[in-house]
Automatic annotation (TrEMBL):
<dbReference type="GO" id="GO:0006779">
    <property type="term" value="P:porphyrin-containing compound biosynthetic process"/>
</dbReference>
<keyword id="KW-0627">Porphyrin biosynthesis</keyword>
<comment type="similarity">
    <text>Belongs to the class-III pyridoxal-phosphate-dependent aminotransferase family. HemL subfamily.</text>
</comment>
<dbReference type="InterPro" id="IPR015422">
    <property type="entry name" value="PyrdxlP-dep_Trfase_small"/>
</dbReference>
<dbReference type="InterPro" id="IPR015421">
    <property type="entry name" value="PyrdxlP-dep_Trfase_major"/>
</dbReference>
<keyword id="KW-0963">Cytoplasm</keyword>
<keyword id="KW-0413">Isomerase</keyword>
<comment type="pathway">
    <text>Porphyrin-containing compound metabolism; protoporphyrin-IX biosynthesis; 5-aminolevulinate from L-glutamyl-tRNA(Glu): step 2/2.</text>
</comment>
<protein>
    <recommendedName>
        <fullName>glutamate-1-semialdehyde 2,1-aminomutase</fullName>
        <ecNumber>5.4.3.8</ecNumber>
    </recommendedName>
</protein>
<dbReference type="GO" id="GO:0030170">
    <property type="term" value="F:pyridoxal phosphate binding"/>
</dbReference>
<keyword id="KW-0032">Aminotransferase</keyword>
<dbReference type="GO" id="GO:0042286">
    <property type="term" value="F:glutamate-1-semialdehyde 2,1-aminomutase activity"/>
</dbReference>
<dbReference type="InterPro" id="IPR005814">
    <property type="entry name" value="Aminotrans_3"/>
</dbReference>
<keyword id="KW-0663">Pyridoxal phosphate</keyword>
<dbReference type="InterPro" id="IPR015424">
    <property type="entry name" value="PyrdxlP-dep_Trfase"/>
</dbReference>
<dbReference type="Pfam" id="PF00202">
    <property type="entry name" value="Aminotran_3"/>
</dbReference>
<dbReference type="GO" id="GO:0008483">
    <property type="term" value="F:transaminase activity"/>
</dbReference>
Length: 439
């Protein structure tokens, strides 16, 4: 298409680099996420809200490394502190004061988190949260949502983007491995429910509560397309977990940005265990899992039969230092400012969508939003899946050509490095793209 040709023309150096990379990395990439056809751009430099690619193109970054760069790229305070940390020590296999400082900071922010431990990714965070739930309850099953994303470990790689179940939906959806290489045998432990459907959860629990350790849920679905919980949904999950004797795990890997206390603070519902990552590392590899002290005590090495957890780089000084700074910078005022920027963006994009009569709907919670090419805002995987992939791909490509770096899925994450002027520039770009498409 014409959009594709323009992309090819302006990214020649990225193409050359991608060709060379294909010899040494399968598909020429080491991660799938920002990949789009025919090849991803190679980014040479990034600062604040801007990316610069190998051909000298500038982009406003609305992916922000999938929501982890809440203060944009190379925030001066974070850079300064990290430089100092690099000079003072490399990673050590001992305690460092920064671990205690970040642990305390996160426990103070998220009311339900009494104790916490660090790891290196959100994937590990949900893996250890589920392991803790199993150890604490002595049960192995868990409920996850259809379309729910909790990282890449085998146990949770089920029903992330399954084929649509149409017609009469069953109470229990069959768990479908998301990738080859995942053992079907693991499906025995997994129960799938649609997001925002508490009846489905209760039906599973009525039958299987004796086998189920936990419900794991993103309070706002992220990868599925920024889908907010319906009013009362999370509180009802809390009630059902208590009624049936299972633990409630909130995967707040994305949602911690929404409120000083995370989605739990925003919606006033407390989890038993919480998985965190992304923004708590200030841009560096990170994960953390925490919760009730009686549950977290399963990791206490002084206890007989304690649960194993470690990791060569868990709690390393660079990540801890950047994480402390990132969270200190993200005070109530910063979150309010993000809300104002994000609301301005939503209004602008909505106006454009109406003006050009595009079949699209926006979902937004705080500084995360998603443009869906559906008539109605989705409430679960099935309704989100109705988005037009063709339109989504075209819009993504045209936005890239305009200099707006948003995800192929239509998800946008804002950063505190943005100002009103960046938002207005983006709305203008979106308007030009939509005008082109509506012709
Ligand atoms: N959980 C959620 C809700 C996520 O969005 C992600 C990543 O996008 C993860 C877990 C996995 O985190 P990581 O990529 O750090 O392993």
């Amino acid at each position: 298409s014409e959009a594709n040709q323009r992309y090819l023309n302006r990214t020649k150096n990225s193409e050359v680099r991608h060709k060379a990379a294909q010899q040494f990395m399968p598909g020429g990439v080491t991660r799938f996420t920002t990949f789009h056809r025919p090849y991803p751009v190679t980014i040479i430099r990034a600062e604040g809200p801007e990316l610069h690619d190998a051909d000298g193109n500038r982009y406003l970054d609305f992916i922000n490394n999938y929501g982890s760069l809440i203060h944009g790229h190379a925030h001066p305070t974070i850079v300064r502190l990290v430089q100092r940390a690099v000079e003072s020590a490399s990673a050590v296999s001992a305690s460092i004061p920064e671990q205690m400082e970040l642990a305390q900071l996160l426990c103070k922010r998220v009311a339900s988190v009494e104790q916490i431990r660090f790891c290196n990714s959100g994937t590990e965070a949900t893996m250890f949260a589920i392991r803790a739930a199993r150890a604490f309850t002595g049960k192995s099953g868990f409920i996850k949502m259809e379309g729910g994303y909790h990282g890449l470990h085998d146990a949770v790689e089920f029903s992330i983007s399954p084929p649509l179940v149409t017609g009469e939906r069953k109470n229990t959806l069959e768990p479908i491995p998301t990738s080859s290489g995942i053992s079907h045998n693991l499906a025995r432990d997994i129960y799938i429910a649609p997001f925002n459907d508490t009846h489905a959860i209760e039906n599973i629990l009525l039958e299987k509560a004796q086998e189920i350790a936990a419900i794991i849920v993103e309070p706002v679905m992220g990868v599925a397309g920024i889908i907010p919980p319906l009013p009362g949904y999370l509180a009802e999950l809390r009630r059902l977990a208590d009624k049936y004797g299972v633990l409630l795990i909130f995967d707040e890997v994305q949602t911690l940005r929404l409120h000083p206390g995370g989605a739990q603070g925003l919606y006033h519902v407390e989890a038993d265990l919480t998985a965190m990552a992304k923004i708590i590392g200030g841009g560096f590899p990170v994960g953390a899992f925490g919760g009730r002290a009686d549950i977290m005590s399963v990791f206490d090495p002084n206890q007989p039969g304690h649960v194993s957890h470690g990791g060569t780089f868990s709690g390393n000084n660079i990540t801890m230092t950047a994480g402390i700074a990132s969270m200190q910078l993200l005070d109530k005022e910063a979150i309010d400012r993000l809300e104002a920027l994000s609301s301005r963006l939503e209004k602008g994009l909505s106006h454009v969508i109406q003006k050009y009569n595009i079949p699209a709907a926006i979902t937004r919670v705080g500084s995360m939003l998603n443009v869906h090419f559906t008539k109605l805002p989705p409430i679960d995987y099935t309704t989100a899946h109705a988005t037009s992939k063709e339109l989504g791909t075209l819009v993504h490509l045209e936005l890239m050509n305009y200099g707006i770096f948003a995800s192929p899925r239509g998800t946008w994450y804002l950063s505190t490095a943005m100002a009103d002027s960046h938002i207005d520039e983006t709305i203008s770009g979106f308007s030009e793209v939509m005008q082109k498409i509506s012709r």
